[in-house]
Structures are given as C-alpha cells and as structure tokens.
Specification:
This protein is α+β, with helices and mostly antiparallel strands. The protein folds into two domains: 3-140, Fructose-1,6-Bisphosphatase, subunit A, domain 1 (Fructose-1,6-Bisphosphatase, Chain A, domain 1, 2-Layer Sandwich), CATH 3.30.540.10; 149-261, D-Maltodextrin-Binding Protein, domain 2, CATH 3.40.190.80. The chain is built from eight helices and 14 strands. Strand 6 (111-119) and strand 7 (124-129) form a beta hairpin. The chain is globular, with a radius of gyration of 17 Å. The model has no long low-confidence stretch (mean pLDDT 93).
C-alpha cells in the first residue's frame, strides 16, 4: 500500500470537512448543544462532520473498521481501522475559543500507519504516514531539543469524568508548574500533541483520554522523533488512556515525577 498517497487523500477529506466546520463556526446555534455526560458536550457540527468523514473515508478502504467519537458507525475488528475525532475541542468551539481541530488516524493490524490533525483556526495541517517523516503544511517538523524540565514549556488537560485521581493530578500539576517555564491547557489533546511534535511544547501529559483524542497525535509525535508512554513508562497508553508525550530528553525526569503521584 502507498501510505503517502493514501495520506494525501485523507488530508483532502479532512480539509473539506474543516471547511464545513469553519463555516458553521460563524453561524453556530448554541441552543442545539446536547450533553452526553457531565461536562461532555456534542453539537450538530460534531455529528455532521463525523458523517462527512466516515462517508469519504469508507471510499478509500471499503472494508475498514471505524472507532468514532459520535458513533456514526461501529465497525471494529478489521485489519484497517479508522479512529476519528471530528471536532477535538468541542467545548472551545461552542464557546468561540479558537483552539480545536479534526483528528484522523488509520491503524493497520493494531499499529498506526497514518495520522492527520487539522488545527482549523491557524490553518495548520499536521500529518505523517508509515515510512515517512512528520509534516506541518508540507514542511518537515521535529520535536524540540530542550534538554531539561526547568527550561521547558509543558501542556496538559483536565479530565471531564472519573475524578477519583484529581488530587493526585493536581499535586503533579503543581510540581510541573514549579519546575518548568509553565504548563498550558489548550483544551484539545490532539492539538497539544501536534504542538509537541513540532517543538512548541516540550512535553504533554494527560489521563482519562479517549482513543480518538490521541491516536493521530501520538503517531505524529513519534514520527517527529518524540516518545510516547503511559504513566508507568510502558507502551500500553492506547488501552490505559493515559499519555506522556515528550521530546525524548524529558522522558526520565517527567516519568519520575508522574510515578510519585500515579
């Protein structure tokens, strides 16, 4: 399979869907918000965007499986599986905060082969494919070379469900704030990850994520020369749904801190 060619087709589909979201952002009706759970909102924009993505991606690999946030389709257990977040950062979108995007990953036999994250407001298309590098708008990107925590800028997110580890997390956050240049919370994990991939952030950590939040972004970080682990330092982040993504140089220092609290 020509992964680069397939990736380019995915980019075109994502860009087309992004045009729809961008148009809706200018006329969004906040009264049409639905609640899936505590602090977990969805709009007609999420649902329609997902439908558009699924309809077009199905044409690329007709027998592929899908894991999607809004459950447009449920088809798992296939050789190829698309993992889709049609609007990562829905809360930002609803409130008019310009930090959200589309995340699409393709897995083959359980391993990522394509990752695309489109940050709509800046018009930034991040992507990578098996056998290739990581790119931002056709220019190769790499993680930062920052060697230590004290001169780093970090990113994180706050869980919107299962708050049983909240106090542990707040203690970890306090330590990271004291030992670094700062910690940013954008509110869109896919964006946090690709910002780590291109060196804007030196590392990103968060728990209680969903697979569609990080499937594409983690792959792009790795393809940009970074590292991704679960909070134990293992590689089971896909199932544990906890992410530490770094430039590789901060991994040990950050894992030491995380293990003290988790």
């Amino acid at each position: 399979m020509n992964y680069e060619l397939l990736c380019n087709k995915v980019i075109s589909i994502v860009r087309l869907t992004g045009n729809f979201i961008r148009k809706e952002s200018m006329q969004f009706d906040a009264s049409k918000i639905e609640y899936k759970g505590l602090n977990d909102m969805v709009s007609y924009v999420d649902k329609t965007a997902e439908q558009k993505l699924v309809q077009n991606l199905e044409k690329l690999i007709p027998d592929a499986g899908f894991i999607t946030e809004e459950k447009t389709i449920s088809r798992e257990g296939k050789i190829f599986t698309w993992i889709i977040d049609p609007l990562d950062g829905t809360t930002n979108f609803i409130h008019g905060i310009p930090a959200y995007g589309i995340s699409v990953a393709l897995y083959e036999d359980g391993l990522p082969v394509i990752g695309v994250v489109y940050e709509l407001n800046r018009g930034e298309m991040f992507y990578s494919f098996k056998g290739g590098k990581a790119f931002l708008n056709k220019k190769e990107i790499q993680v930062s070379v920052n060697p230590d925590l004290k001169s780093s800028l970090l990113a994180t997110g706050f869980p919107y469900y299962q708050f049983d580890k909240q106090q542990q997390y707040l203690k970890l956050l306090e330590e990271m704030m004291q030992k670094s240049h700062g910690v940013r919370r954008i509110g869109a994990a896919a964006v946090d990850l690709v910002y780590t991939a291109c060196g804007r952030f030196d590392a990103f950590f968060e728990y209680n994520l969903q697979q569609w939040d990080f499937a594409a972004g983690c792959f792009i970080v790795q393809q940009a020369g970074g590292e991704v682990f679960d909070f134990s330092g293992g590689n089971d982040y896909f199932n544990k749904r906890e992410i530490l993504a770094t430039n590789g140089k901060l991994t040990n220092e950050m894992l030491e801190a995380i293990k003290r609290f988790f």
